[in-house]
Structures are given as structure tokens and as C-alpha cells.
Prior knowledge:
By secondary structure, the chain is mainly alpha-helical. The chain has four helices and no strands. The chain is extended, with a radius of gyration of 18 Å. The N and C termini lie far apart (47 Å).
Amino acid sequence: MSSQPEQAPAPPAPAAAAQLRADRRAGTWVTAFERDWAKALEDSGHSYSLTPLHDVVRAWQLRVAAAPAVDAYMDSGWDESGFVDLDDVLGTRR
């Protein structure tokens, strides 16, 4: 007899999802976060490790923290037309 349930309920997405919903990027960010969170839950279930969940939370915390700096840069009007696309340099990736 096992003390572990056969199927443990999935933990809810952290409060970061609520913060994302308040941002103007919510339409794309919430969907991307939920996709990343679902994949991390699946990976955690296979590896019995919470590391994938922590990695998703850390990555999204950094994205949310960097958003004002990115907005300020985009609003500054810098011309980015002279840059080379990374895909042109690296070629197609497999």
C-alpha cells in the first residue's frame, strides 16, 4: 500500500500569471506562460523534480522585469534597420 496518490493534482500556475494578465502584452504572454508552465509540469512529472517549474518562474520573472526597459528602448526610436538577421548568419537550424 502506497502513501502517495496515484495521480497528484497539478499545482496551479503561480501568481506571476495574474501579473501577466495585468500587462498590455497579456494576449500573447499569458498564452506563452501557460504553454511553458504546462510543459514544465509534464517534465516535472517525468523527472520527479521541481526544477523545470522553478526555471519557468525565473524566466518569466526576468521577462516581466525587463519589459519596461524593452518598452523604453522601443519608444526611443532607435533605427534597427542596419542589423543582420541571425538566421542569415547561422543559416537554417535543425
